[in-house]
Amino acid sequence: MVIRVSEMRALQPRWGGSYRAMEKLAADAQKYAAQNPKLVTLKGFPDVERGRVAWENKDTEGALRFYDQALQEGGDLFNTGYVSRGGLYLRLGRYDDALRDLDRANHLRPQEPGVLESLAYIYAHFKRPKDTLAMIQEYRTIAEPGPDLVNLELWAQNFDPGSKPGAANDGD
Predict the structure, then answer these.
(1) Residues 96 and 126 occupy one common structural domain
(2) What SS3 class is residue 16?
């Protein structure tokens, strides 16, 4: 699976590949899906890449449509699809949707620093400091947080229901 995912990423058009080549790799792998059900997820990679391109071109509706299609084709085990769509939801301020997708991604593949960081910000948005701290603590087990995440941690440790996440509370 790891080799096929690496090959899939190398076949992206931005690296000189094509969507057609990505789709062929995914289709060829399906004959082994009975032995490894995660191979079904390969079918979602071309649409994740299409979604990324749509988002870069500021086509939000197109990006969401491609991410939805990627998850439909890649199935419920498609972590990359959940991360991609969840990240877009987060950037759009659709926090409930982002939480659902990124929580699923974290369940499928725990300890991805970007997912943990995003979840911390989502929990802060919902003013859930304990959950925010839990995500940051888990993040710290695998990576060193940057200044923004440290500020978010300070906010959560000194939670004041009237404060904004990441904002200094006492002028410190």
Answers:
(1) no
(2) coil
